[in-house]
Structures are given as structure tokens and as C-alpha cells.
């Protein structure tokens, strides 16, 4: 039994966005597969209190946690890889630390002392990490044994200096055998010569050592596997054994990264270095990852989904949405093809200004097997989204609207079926005579940060013959994560229902419309919540799973069979309850016959 918490710090060098998040998640995954309880903390050196007010072009999407924390998308990776539930305090920012220290100073906690970066800020960072590492994140409520900490940005940035200094002190506070550092670096391969260059890594590690941290493992990100000579060169110039140089080259799917680390002896290294109590039993969970990545490499049939949004130039803006689609595609043995469409390109004004863009966008939309309109903010591109929804409704194309996508589906139906030409959301047209979407009573218009309906809320199914209810395993209610300021106007509900546009899911009080479904359509579903945040590789999110089934023409056959391949059960990870063999046989999803 572990008595001391083990800390693994992941730092990065040379460039940001090198893949520290995936490395940290993968390290956590292989340790979890050895039977340890693992938690994760992401440190972002920016001064924002949280990620809630970022544009998705800044740091990618904003990920929402059960407790309503708006955090960095790396926490989404941790939750998906490790199948854990984190809280907002697992994302630490410079803003949060300074805010807590300044509040203490105002209360007089420092008794007249000069408050400084060292020791006050650095102590606050260490206390935060030690406190948060103990919070249970697994369903069984056990205290974690290992905490993986990812330090955002690049070593040498001015803004991350207090954090590096805090961990320099921390390694002595918790003792050497309870702390180790993984440094992720880039090994570029200039196309002119084709040889792998180690100088950036050498410089990055020299800088890290100068700040008082010595890497235990150097993870080299490269496009092709590292040559042995290069590995030995890094080992020699960076003062580590060749075994401590780990190569993570570009792979076909991120599910392969834990396997890559495992193959290079990372687990046995941690066992010795951190004195971990791991028996050398077969690691069932990793078998599952292997099975998954093999499967994703072998897919032959493909299924295309048109993603109609406004942040389509940067795929990280929709990271969780893409992951949820991938999880669902994998579950039905299809390769996913996402067609990104900027919704503004579908609008008539584009036809006048840039006809080629307009026709290309419509060609993409018309050739897709299904249509997804994700959440978003602001008026730009909303008319284009309504055009796409209208097309999906009339052509009976499978459609899923999430958050704003669901609200716009309500607007589209009101305009084109109920004949309310000016129907709109008060977010975009405050003067509309038919405000079908209105802002919520608790929204405070003066302040932007943290003023939304956030976090896990319960949705009750009001109808027994709802497709989505059946996809959720005929549940009476579901708990999903929300992030919105506006909602469907409940007073106009009757008008819609009489037209076959049903609000099948509502909140506990029956005042908020949470799920819509359209009669006489193969799959026309809208959800006010964000189901993508709780999707897992092995347990796809039901609304997305339904979209993929419908897009592949398999939904009816699946429902007729009583949803036998329920995404919630297929390969649910209850490691420890079953023998490895049954665990692996559970994994092989029954293939759905072509009905």
C-alpha cells in the first residue's frame, strides 16, 4: 500500500503545443492500468482565473466539468484517458494563485509581512497541489496514489517561472523518491537533410537544469522513430541513461501513445524510481487500448459528418465534439470523416460576394451522411446554421444540434413550419415578436465570467417513445453538463408540440427544455446540454452515437434489436471485477448487421 503521494511533473520545451497533455494522460493511463489510483492537475501560467472567457481560437475549446468549472481542454484528455471526474481546482492558473494570495493578504493572514513571489506565491502553489492531489476522482471514492501535474507553456517563459521555482522547492519537500520530472521536447527533422536534430532538446534541458529541475525521463516528440545514435547523443549531452530517453513519434491514433510508453519500459522505470507497489500482472486496461487502436487502424467503411460551426479553421475549437464523434464511429466500426463547414459560407450574402465558397460549402453539406451543429456564441454565422438545419429537416438527413444548435433548430421550425418569420433568440434579435429562445432569469448581463448555467444538471425524459431515451438505455433521467446563457421559451411549447416537434426531455422543474425530437424523421435531435464532455473511448455519448448510427443507416436495426450494443455497457471498464479474458471478449463489439 502506498503511504506517500507520488508526484510526476510533466514540463515541455522548444515549442508549446508539443503534446504534453497527451503524454501526461498516457503516463496516467499506464499507471492506472497497473491498478493505481491516478489524479491529474493542469497548470496554466496565464493570468485569467479560468478558461471561461477565452475565444476557442486562443486555446481551443473550453471544457466544462461536473462542478461547472470552465477549464483547459487538457482536462478533457485526462477525463477521457483515465475515465475520472475532475473538479475546477484541478486546473490551476496564475490568476487563481494570485487571487488566493491577495485575498489572504487583505484578510491580514500574513501578519504585516511583505508578500513576495518567493516564498508566498511558491508556497501557495505547493499547498494547492498537495491539497488537490488528495481529492478522490474515481467512482469508488478512493484517495489517489499518483498525481500527474502538467505545467503548461514552455520552460523559460517568464510567466511560468514561479511554478518552476515552486517545484524546485517541492522536490525536496516531498523527498526524491516521491517526485519525478518528465520533460517533453521536440526533435525536428529539417526536410533539406532529413536528419534528426538534438540541439533544441539540449538547450531546453540546459535551461531546465539551470532552474533547478533535473529530468528523469526525456520524451522526444518526432515525426519518425528516433535513431539509436540520436538517442545516445541526447543521453550523453543531457546527462541521462539511454533508457531515460523515450521516443514518441507521430502515430496513427493517440490511443497508441500509452502503448508506445509501455513498450519503452516506462512502467518499470517508475516502479524503481518512485518505488511503486506494482505486481507484474497482465495489464487488462492496456489490452483494451491496444484493441481499440488496432480497430481504428483496420476500419474500412467510412461515415461523413458535416460539422457546421464558426470556429472551423482550428480543429481544437471542437476537440471534445470530434472525440465524441470518433468514439461513436469506432463503436460501429466506421472510419470518421469530418467535413468542416464555416456556417457563414452557407448564407446568401456569400453567394453574392464569393460564389465559389458558397457552392463548395453547400456541396460539402449535401454530400455528408449526417449534420452536426455544435454550441457557440455570437450572431455571426447563425443564419447559415439555420439554413443547414432546414436542409437536414427537409431532406430527412440525420441531425444533432448541441446547445446553440438545438436553439437554432427551434428557431428554424418556428420560422418555416409555424410561419413566425421573425422568430429568433433574444441573443441575436432582442426586438423579435416571437422570442423562441430567451435569456435565463439567473443570467447577470453586466458580468461575462462565470454567469452561465454551468456544470452537471439532471434532465428528465417526459416521453417513453423517445429515440434518445432508448439510446440512453431507457433511462428515466440523465445527468449531463451544461454551459449556456439562453434557453428555449417555455411559454411557446404547445405551438411546437402540436406540429410534431416534441420537447421529450426537461429539467427537474419542467421549466427548461433540454431535449427536442422531431416526428417523422429518422434522427432529428437537439440537446441543450453538452453530451460530448462525458463521452469516453469505450462508452460513447448516446446523442452522438445515435447520430453516427443514423448516418451509417444502422439506427433502426439497432433499436429493433433492443439496443443490444448499448454504448454504456459495451466495454465498460470495471477493471478488477472480471478476469482478463472476459474483459477482452467484452471488448469485441458485436457487429451490427446491414439491415
TrEMBL record:
Keywords: ATP-binding, Glutamine amidotransferase, Ligase, Nucleotide-binding, Pyrimidine biosynthesis
GO molecular function: ATP binding; CTP synthase activity; identical protein binding
EC category: ligase
Gene Ontology biological process terms in this record: 'de novo' CTP biosynthetic process; CTP biosynthetic process; pyrimidine nucleobase biosynthetic process
Gene3D superfamilies in the record: 3.40.50.880, P-loop containing nucleotide triphosphate hydrolases
Pathway: Pyrimidine metabolism; CTP biosynthesis via de novo pathway; CTP from UDP: step 2/2
Domain Glutamine amidotransferase: 315-542
EC number of this enzyme: 6.3.4.2
Cross-referenced PROSITE patterns: GATASE_TYPE_1 (PS51273)
Keyword Nucleotide-binding: yes
Reaction equations catalysed: UTP + L-glutamine + ATP + H2O = CTP + L-glutamate + ADP + phosphate + 2 H(+)
Region (Disordered), start-end ranges: 564-595
Domain CTP synthase N-terminal: start-end pairs: 6-276
Cross-referenced HAMAP family: PyrG
PANTHER family according to UniProt: CTP SYNTHASE (PTHR11550), CTP SYNTHASE-RELATED (PTHR11550:SF0)
Family: Belongs to the CTP synthase family.
Name the record gives this protein: CTP synthase
Source organism of this protein record: Lepisosteus oculatus (Spotted gar)
